[in-house]
Design goal:
single chain, 361 residues, Alpha-Beta Plaits, 2 domains, six-stranded antiparallel barrel, 8 helices, 34% strand
């Protein structure tokens, strides 16, 4: 018979999926998710008294899934999520990690707990690189089956946390808690699609066995001053593993002059205060916009695709600020779209194609 903790974890996983797809689960969908949860969750989770331990926390999360969930049937979303969760879970286990929990459209994994390992950080780094490589294979299958492509961002942080079994006796759950766990979630929230971002502590401990790209200095909730986040581009030891680069400029930019009404996004919640600007140029996966405010690097916005672009009706898109510069009384800001494969994203791609073909003709 299943223990109460395991049953609760399965139920929570199923509830999270139902919440993410935005509708109740039909009988077939419920059976599919129940089977998936049982396959991935350990029926005998470890039981241990809480203790302080240095570990590495890895969080992988799908970019732009909220918009995708609003535009696809539940059956399609399950077809997207099932192989994603299965592959991410496999890779965590292959690298000696522990799946702590599922986060609706993401996975939180621990390295160095429950099993005490000195090599928790190298294992997490190798796992992250393999995860981004696995996304290429998952998307190849999605394209072949007519399913939208998906992209993931990954955040990694190393620090002292409390690990052990928490909760009342009948529902005890092994997990990690503490500021460093919360900070790992903050690091992940700043990652663009295809990226692996490292905290300062993870970077300093691993810099002899990794390659890095851009360094971002950001202000993060829970930290008194600015922090540096490092983009990992490859693991060099013990085996060289490259993080595939997701092309952010996959098409020429076309000059446009379109109104932009947007909202800022904080902790995945849209802040109900509209701003107005204008789109200056547009590509398949990003845009340059003129804004009335200076957005911090990697901050996120939500906006509705202009009806002129989306002939089938308005559709939302999400984007992250890459960099900006002062332009008289405004700011020119470059954005990367984070909600790929959605109706809004397809509308932008079709609009860019129409402008390119018209210019060519």
């Amino acid at each position: 018979m299943e223990n109460a903790d395991y049953s609760a974890r399965v139920a929570a996983f199923m509830t999270g999926i139902a919440h993410r797809i935005g509708s109740p689960l039909a009988e077939r969908e419920r059976a599919t998710i129940n089977q998936l949860a049982h396959a991935m969750l350990d029926p005998s989770p470890p039981v241990a008294e809480p203790e302080s331990r240095l570990i590495t926390v890895l969080i992988v999360d799908l970019r732009g899934f909220s918009v995708l969930a609003d535009s696809c049937e539940p059956a399609v979303l399950l077809a997207v999520l099932k192989p994603f969760f299965e592959r991410m879970t496999e890779l965590v286990h292959e690298h000696g990690g522990f799946v702590d929990k599922f986060l609706g459209d993401g996975v939180m994994a621990l390295f160095g707990a429950p099993e005490h390992r000195e090599d928790h950080l190298p294992l997490a780094l190798a796992c992250a690189a393999r995860m981004q490589q696995a996304m290429l294979d998952l998307n190849a299958g999605n394209i072949a089956n007519g399913i939208p492509e998906i992209h993931a961002g990954i955040g990694i942080n190393t620090g002292e946390v409390m690990v052990g079994s928490f909760g009342p006796q009948q529902y005890r759950e092994y997990t990690a808690i503490g500021d460093e766990v919360n900070f790992a979630a903050r690091v992940e929230s700043f990652s663009l699609r295809g990226q692996v971002l490292l905290s300062e502590r993870s970077y300093r401990a691993a810099r002899g066995c990794i390659e890095t790209g851009a360094i971002r200095q950001l202000r993060v909730k829970g930290r008194s001053g600015p922090v540096n986040l490092y983009e990992m581009t490859a693991v060099t030891a013990p085996v060289r593993t490259i993080v595939p680069q997701v092309e952010m400029r996959a098409s020429p930019r076309v000059p446009v002059q379109l109104p932009l009404r947007f909202y800022r996004v904080h902790d995945k919640q849209v802040i109900d205060e509209p701003y107005r600007g204008s789109i200056m140029n547009l590509g398949y996966d990003g845009m340059l916009a003129r804004l009335p405010l200076d957005l911090p690097s990697l901050s996120e916005i939500s906006f509705t695709v202009n009806p002129d672009l989306a002939s089938d009706g308005a559709s939302d898109l999400y984007a992250r600020a890459l960099h900006s510069r002062r332009d008289d009384d405004a700011y020119q800001t470059a954005f990367a779209f984070t909600s790929g494969g959605t109706p809004g994203h397809e509308a932008v791609r079709n609009y860019v194609d129409r402008l390119l073909w018209g210019a060519a003709g």
